Amino acid sequence: MLNFSTSEENYLKTIYHLQTKDDNVSTNELAEKLQAKPASITDMMKKLKTRKLVNYQPYRGFRLTPEGKKVALSIIRRHRLWEYFLAEKLKFNWDEVHEVAEQLEHVSNKKLVDKLDEFLAYPKFDPHGDPIPDTNGKMEATKQISLSELQINKPAKICYIANQSELLLEHLQEKKIKMDAMIVVKRKFSYDDSLEIKLDNKIMLTISGQLAKNIFVKHG
């Protein structure tokens, strides 16, 4: 695989996250996400188009080519493997791993990444529940619903956190809400959509409706 600059990798990864099945990514969307000037976005798109990594037409937006998607998935794979390593082996808190993994993801030695994957016993999901692409870019899908949709007294397991901001993850940690915990909704309060929940059959908590929408579960 060809070598890419840190900036090019950040662009490719961000485009992958922004593009949907049907819609292209606009210059303004990418500029806002990367906090860059539109002129800088245009210059980079021309460069990535030359390398056949994006399809780009002025004023019509852009999206990754198959090769661009392949590169983006390899970056995401490295990032999520490093997050898993930091959390599981070095015992970083889950609100700490993203920033460090942002640096480590640019170490692109394939043998290192494959050995890391093997050392970690081929994890399918990172510490926040995001799927980890395998060496071919394939990711495992899981059926999940937000905690706010879970029926009362129906046991489930926490499998994904949608909002991965440092503040929200710290808040979850303070409440001892973590990945793979068993959770049961005991009561729903219609006046503010808050929930009374039970964690691992022992901890009773009341959480806001907004927090519940960011916690995703699968039936246990």
Largest sheet: 6 strands, antiparallel
Shape estimate: globular
Give a count of the beta strands, DSSP E runs of length 2 or more.
8
Proportion in helices: 40-55%
**Element pattern in H and E:** HHHEEHHHEEHEEEHE
| Unreliable residue stretches | none
Task: Give descriptors for this structure.
220 residues; alpha+beta; Arc Repressor Mutant, subunit A; SH3 type barrels
Q: What this model shows, in words?
A:
The chain has 220 residues and is an alpha+beta fold. Among the domains are: 6-64, Winged helix-like DNA-binding domain superfamily/Winged helix DNA-binding domain (Arc Repressor Mutant, subunit A, Orthogonal Bundle), CATH 1.10.10; 145-219, Ferrous iron transport protein A (FeoA) (SH3 type barrels), CATH 2.30.30. The chain contains 8 helices and 8 strands. The chain has helices spanning 6-18, 27-34, 38-50, 66-88, 97-104, 110-119, 166-174, 209-213; strands at residues 54-57, 61-64, 145-146, 156-161, 182-189, 194-199, 203-207, 215-219. The longest helix has 23 residues, at 66-88. The N and C termini lie far apart (40 Å). The model has no long low-confidence stretch (mean pLDDT 93).
